[in-house]
Amino acid sequence: MKNITLLSCLMIIALSSCIKDDFINDTIDPVLRITNPIDTIAESTTFQFEAMYLNNVGLEEVITQTWQSSQPNVIQISNDGLAEALQPGSSVISVEYTDGSNTLRDEIEVHVGETTIVVSTDKIGSIATTSSYKLTGDFSLKEDGSDLILEFANNYEASTALPGLYVYLTNNNTTTSNALEIGKVATFSGAHSYTIPNTGINDFKYVLYFCKPFNVKVGDGEIQ
Questions:
Q1: What percent of the chain has pLDDT over 70?
Q2: Would 2-25+121-222 and 35-118 be classified into the same CATH topology?
Q3: CA 95 to CA 148: how far, in whole Å?
Q4: Is 159 helix (H, G, I), strand (E, B) or coil?
Q5: Residues 39-54: pLDDT tens digits?
Q6: For residues 32 and 95, is the Cβ–Cβ distance under 8 A?
Q7: Fold of 2-25+121-222
Q8: Whole-number Å distance between alpha carbons of 220 and 185
Q9: What pLDDT score does 25 carry?
Q10: CA dihedral sign, ordered 14, 184, 54, 220
Q11: Residue 75 neighbours by CB distance under 10 Å
């Protein structure tokens, strides 16, 4: 009987600790972003730009995009994002989408030269706690074929006090709904990595940590 009472008390304490960090609003600002940025397009060649629209809960939606080139005599671009490099120079390539009264936009400067140069796809970021539990550290993301490698640096540290800490990739850092679950946290200090199969480096915007048994956010980090 004493053991049952002690277990009940521990569960109440853990639940209370998680509840105080809970939230209600799980919506985010919609976003439109170019997912395959490029530095230079070789003259007299073409390049197919792609963009992703995420709605106010972080889900990708198919939309009608509007592509533009600030210097169409340098780079000409069609309505579906197919760019043609006409002559040496530079142009700002932009994509827009209007959802009601809001217009979303993303843009990059692109050059025309002798060879095509793709922007490095490696990304970095730092996680930080959004709760009373310790969570800190830098991370990097890189592609390995069709897989994604999420690697944490030596300065990573996470609390061991939670009953079940899980890590996710997501486009909505307020909820695990529609997030990609990477797995239960097994390393709480120091460098370590995760291999995430069949995932693109531009598919997600955040690394997210949740106390899974109580569905409560512990911390996050933006992928940059």
A1: 89
A2: yes
A3: 26
A4: coil
A5: 999 999 999 999 999 9
A6: yes
A7: Immunoglobulin-like (2.60.40)
A8: 14
A9: 60
A10: positive
A11: 24
Please give the CATH topology (third level) of the domain spanning 35-118.
Immunoglobulin-like (2.60.40)
How many residues are recorded in the chain?
224
Secondary structure string (H, E, C) spanning 49-70: CCEEEECCCCCEECCCCEEEEC
Q: Which amino acid is at 99?
A: D
pLDDT band at 102 (very low <50, low <70, confident <90, very high): confident
157 neighbors 137 (Cβ within 8 angstroms): yes
CB 96 within 8 A of CB 66: yes
DSSP-assigned letters across all residues of 100-116: TTEEEEEEEEEEEESS-
Distance CA 191, CA 145 (A): 22
> What does the domain layout of the chain look like in residue ranges?
2-25+121-222, 35-118
